[in-house]
Amino acid sequence: MHPLELVPGSRGRAGLGKPLSKRAELPVHETDHWFRILAESTSTSIFVYQADRVLYVNPACEELTGYSAEELLAMAPWEIGAPELQPMLRERVQARLRGDAGVPNRFEMRILTKDGRERWFDVTSATIVLGNGEPAALQTGVDITDRKQGEERLRAIVEATSSTTGTDFLRSLVRHLAGALGMEYAFVSEVANEEVTRVRLLALWQIDDYRPGFEYDLRGTPCEKVVGREMCLHYSGVWKLFPEDRWLVQTRIESYIAVPLFDRLDRPLGHMAVLSTSAVSEDLPALSILKIFAARAAGEIERKLTEEALAQEKERAQVTLASIGDGVIRTDAAGVVDYLNPVAERLTGWSHDEACGQPVTRIFQVVDEGTGKALPNAVERCLAEGRVIEHSGYSMLVRRDGREFAIRDSVAPIQ
Q1: Are 2 and 53 within 8 A, CB to CB?
Q2: Are the C-beta atoms of 45 and 125 separated by less than 8 Å?
Q3: DSSP count for the chain of H helices, then E strands
Q4: Alpha-carbon gap, residue 153 to 115, rounded angstroms
Q5: Burial level of 207, CB count in 10 A (0-12/13-18/19+)?
Q6: Residue 14 and residue 10: Cα distance in Å, rounded?
Q7: 348 by DSSP, 3-state: which?
Q8: Fewest beta carbons within 10 Å, which of 3, 38, 47, 185?
Q9: Per-residue pLDDT for the chain (415 aa), expressed as one digit of tens each?
Q10: At what angle do helices 145-161 and 286-323 cross, to 10 degrees?
Q11: Distance (Å, rounded) from C-alpha 146 to C-alpha 143?
Q12: Coil/strand/helix, residue 50
C-alpha cells in the first residue's frame, strides 16, 4: 500500500466533515493505528487520490475491483469508472479538489472490474489535507451490485408485463422471471380439484420457449409443501430430496423457489415457481421478486376463474332460454337486439343472426288488438323506469312477413 500521512488532528483525518467528538479523540499515533486497522479490515473500499494520481487503496478496493494495489496506484482517479463515465468523473475529481461548490458528496457509480464484470458502488467522498498541506480526496465505496441487479431484474419484468392481462400476463411473467433470474424453468399453476391435491399449469417457460400446460399430482413433489401453505426455497440438491418426483430427478433440478397464491378470501389458487438445473446463490433475490408478483398473478387467476364462471352461467342461461316455450328477445341498454331464442325467431320471422344489431322496435312490432294502432315502445319505457312493463290483455305481433299473432308480452330490465 502507498503510505498515507494525514495532518494530525485535521478534519480530514477521518474523512468526515466535522471534528471527532471528545469521546472519540485519541493521541495522533493511536488514531493512525486505528485508521490503518479500520481501512485494512473493512469490507468498504477506501480510495484516496489527488488530481491525477491515486495515493492509497485498501484491500477491499483490490478485492472488489479485481485490480492489485499496484495497478490501482498506477491509474488516474477517474479510470476506475466505467468508460462512458470517465469524462464526467474527471471533471468531478478536479472540481472537488479545487473546492468548487455543488460537487456531490454521495453518488452511485458503475465500474468494470478487471475481468470485465459490471459492479456498482454507493460512493461517499470528502476533501482531506495531506501532511504536506496539499488537498486530496478520500472516497469510500459500498458494493451495491446485488441491489442494482435486483432493481434491473424487477424493472425488466415490470416493463415486459405492464401492458398485458389474463393469460398473456402469466405467459409474459414466466418468461421474464426465468430470464431475469437466470433460471431455465418458470411456471404459474392453478388448483385443479377441490381437495387441492392436483394443479394445472397455466403458463410454463422451459429453457427457451413456452411449453403446453398440464396437470399433475402434488404428492411427492416440492410443490406439495407450497400450494395452500407456504414459500419454499431449495438453493441446491432439490432432486435428491424428492425422489418420487420423476421429472425432477430425470432433469436433475438443483434449485427450486416457489410461493403460494391465494385469492382475496385466503383460499388456495395455485403457486408460482422458478427452477434451475444449477445451484443458485442465496443472495439471488428470486423469492422477493416472486412475492412482488404473486398478488398480481393471483389477481389474474382469480379474474380468469370469475370469467369462466360467468361464461358457464351464461351458457346455462342460454340453454334455458333456448328450451322454454316462450319467445325471448334481449337487448342492450340502447334497445339494440343481442339475442333471440328459437321461439322468438319463429314468432317474429327474424333469425337470431339477422336480428342482432337491429333496433328492437324493428324486430318486435306490436299493435293494439282492437284499433290496429302501434303500441308505445315498452322497451324504452322499461329502460327509462327500470321496472317490469306489462300490456293488459292481448297485443298483436306483426311478423316480418306481415302476418299477425295475438300475444301476451312483458318487458323486464336485466340488473
Answers
A1: no
A2: no
A3: 13, 19
A4: 22
A5: exposed
A6: 8
A7: helix
A8: 3
A9: 444 444 433 333 333 334 333 434 445 556 677 878 888 899 999 999 998 899 999 999 999 999 999 999 999 999 999 999 999 999 999 999 988 988 999 999 999 999 999 999 999 999 988 888 889 999 999 998 888 877 787 787 878 777 788 889 999 999 999 998 889 999 999 999 999 999 999 999 999 999 999 999 999 999 999 998 899 999 999 999 999 999 999 999 999 999 999 998 999 999 999 999 999 988 778 888 899 889 899 999 998 888 888 888 777 777 776 777 788 888 888 889 998 888 889 989 999 999 999 998 898 888 887 788 888 878 888 888 888 888 777 888 889 998 988 888 888 888 6
A10: 20
A11: 8
A12: coil
Rounded CA separation 385/405 (Å):
28
Q: Single out the residue of 16, 18, 45 nearest to residue 105, CA to CA.
A: 16
Strands (E) located in 61-147 = 106-112, 118-129, 135-143
Q: Is 198 exposed, middle or buried (0-12, 13-18, 19+ CB in 10 A)?
A: middle
Q: Do 328 and 340 touch, CB atoms closer than 8 A?
A: yes
Closest C-alpha among 156, 201, 193 to residue 293: 156
Helix (H) or strand (E) holding 273: strand 268-276
Q: What is the pTM of this model?
A: 0.57
CA distances from 21 to 140, 271, 307, 346 (A): 21, 55, 67, 98
Instruction: Please report, as a single letter, which amino acid is at residue 414.
Output: I
| Contact assessment for residue 171 and residue 210, using Cβ atoms and an 8 Å cutoff | yes
**Which region, left, alpha or beta, applies to residue 220 given φ > 0 means left and ψ of -120 to 50 means alpha?**
left
CA distance 261 to 187: 12
Give the cell for residue 3.
503510505
